[in-house]
Design a protein that fits this description.
- It catalyses: L-glutaminyl-[peptide chain release factor] + S-adenosyl-L-methionine = N(5)-methyl-L-glutaminyl-[peptide chain release factor] + S-adenosyl-L-homocysteine + H(+).
- It comes from Tannerella sp. oral taxon BU063 isolate Cell 1/3.
- It holds the Pfam family MTS.
- Its EC number is 2.1.1.297.
- With 285 residues, the chain is of the alpha/beta class.
- It has two domains: 2-65; 88-279, 3-Layer(aba) Sandwich (Rossmann fold).
- 41% of the residues lie in helices and 20% in strands.
- The chain is built from eleven helices and eleven strands.
- The strands form three sheets. It has a seven-stranded mixed sheet with strand order 5-4-3-6-9-11-10, sandwiched between helices. Strands 1-2 form a two-stranded antiparallel ribbon. Strands 7-8 form a two-stranded parallel ribbon.
- Helix 6 (94-107) packs parallel to helix 7 (124-132).
C-alpha cells in the first residue's frame, strides 16, 4: 500500500495542492480497497492486488481529465451525512452547508416546521434539514426526474422523510400543498459570462442547467421563487437563498421590491456575500 500511496501522490501532485493530494489519495484507496484512513496506516505494508491496482490507475486517468472525484467514487459527505452523486446533480458545496447550519441554528428548536426546498438536486438541503430540525415536514422540488431519483435514494440512505416532487417552478399551474414555514433554495446563479472563470472539473462535468443563468436576466429564479413564495409561505414565514456574491445588492433589492421584510445578506466563511433571507409579512404579503 506504500507503493500505491506514493504513486497516487506523484500522479496527483500536478492536479491538486499537497493537502488535497493526501486527502484524495486516502479517499481513492478507501474506495478501492475498503480500508479506512486509520486502517491504511496499520496496513501500510500490505500490497494491493493487481485488480485493485488497475482500478487505482483508472481513477487517476479520469482525474487527469478533470472529472470530479465525487462522481468517480459516486458519493460525497455533506453536513456529516453521505450522499450519492452523479452528473445529474451538483456536488454539494461547503457554503451550502453553511446555509443549512444557519437555518438549523435559527429554527432548530421549533417543532413540526413545514419546509420546502426548491431545486433540490441531490437532496442534500432537504435531507439534512429533515434530519436536524425537530420533526419537520419537508418537501423538495426539482425539474429533473434523474435528480429526483437520486434525491429519493439519498433520503432512503440517510433515513430521512422527505416528499419529493418533480415539477417546473415556472409552470403557472403548479400548486403545492402548503403553506410552508420555510422555503429554501440554491438555484442556478452563475452568469453565462462567468463560464470562462469556472474550473474544468465543474464546467465539463456538472449539470449546466443547475449552474448557469443568462446574463440579461441572472435573477430569474430568485424572482420566480420570491413571487410564488407569497402563495406558499405562511404569514411570517422565511425565505432563504444561496446567491451569486456579485449580485448580492441586486438580490436584496429584489426581495424588498417583492414585499419581503427583514431582508438580510450574510457572508460565507470566505467572506463573500453568499446568502439572502427575507420574511413575508404577518398578512402573508
Amino acid at each position: 500500500m506504500i507503493e500505491t500511496t506514493a504513486y497516487l501522490r506523484e500522479q496527483l501532485a500536478a492536479i491538486y495542492d499537497p493537502e488535497e493530494t493526501r486527502a484524495i489519495s486516502r479517499w481513492i484507496i478507501e474506495h478501492v480497497t475498503g480500508y479506512t484512513p486509520a486502517q491504511q496506516i496499520l496496513a501500510k505494508d500490505t500490497p494491493i492486488d493487481p485488480q485493485q491496482r488497475e482500478a487505482v490507475r483508472m481513477i487517476v486517468r479520469r482525474l487527469k481529465l478533470h472529472e470530479p472525484i465525487q462522481y468517480i467514487v459516486g458519493e460525497c459527505t455533506f453536513h456529516g451525512l453521505t450522499f450519492s452523486v452523479n452528473p445529474s446533480v451538483l456536488i454539494p458545496r461547503p457554503e451550502t452547508g453553511e446555509l443549512v447550519e444557519h437555518i438549523v441554528q435559527r429554527h432548530g428548536a421549533a417543532p413540526s416546521l413545514r419546509v420546502l426546498d426548491i431545486g433540490t438536486g441531490s437532496g442534500c438541503i432537504a435531507i439534512t434539514l429533515s434530519r436536524q430540525l425537530l420533526r419537520p415536514q419537508v418537501m423538495a422540488l426539482d425539474l429533473s426526474a434523474e435528480a429526483i431519483r437520486t434525491a429519493q435514494a439519498n433520503a432512503e440512505r440517510n433515513g430521512a422523510e422527505v416528499r419529493f416532487v418533480c415539477a417546473d417552478l415556472f409552470d403557472p399551474h403548479l400548486t403545492l400543498p402548503g403553506p410552508f414555514d420555510l422555503i429554501v433554495s440554491n438555484p442556478p446563479y452563475v452568469c453565462d459570462s462567468e463560464k470562462s472563470d469556472m474550473a474544468a472539473h465543474v464546467l465539463d462535468y456538472e449539470p449546466h442547467a443547475a449552474l448557469f443563468v443568462p446574463d440579461d436576466d441572472p435573477l430569474l429564479f430568485y424572482r420566480a421563487i420570491a413571487r410564488r413564495a407569497h402563495e406558499w409561505l405562511t404569514p411570517g414565514g422565511w425565505l432563504y437563498f444561496e446567491i451569486n456574491a456579485a449580485l448580492s445588492t441586486e438580490t436584496a433589492a429584489l426581495l424588498v421590491a417583492e414585499g419581503y421584510s427583514d431582508v438580510r445578506i450574510s457572508r460565507d466563511m470566505e467572506g463573500k456575500n453568499r446568502f439572502a433571507e427575507g420574511r413575508v409579512g404577518a398578512g402573508g404579503g
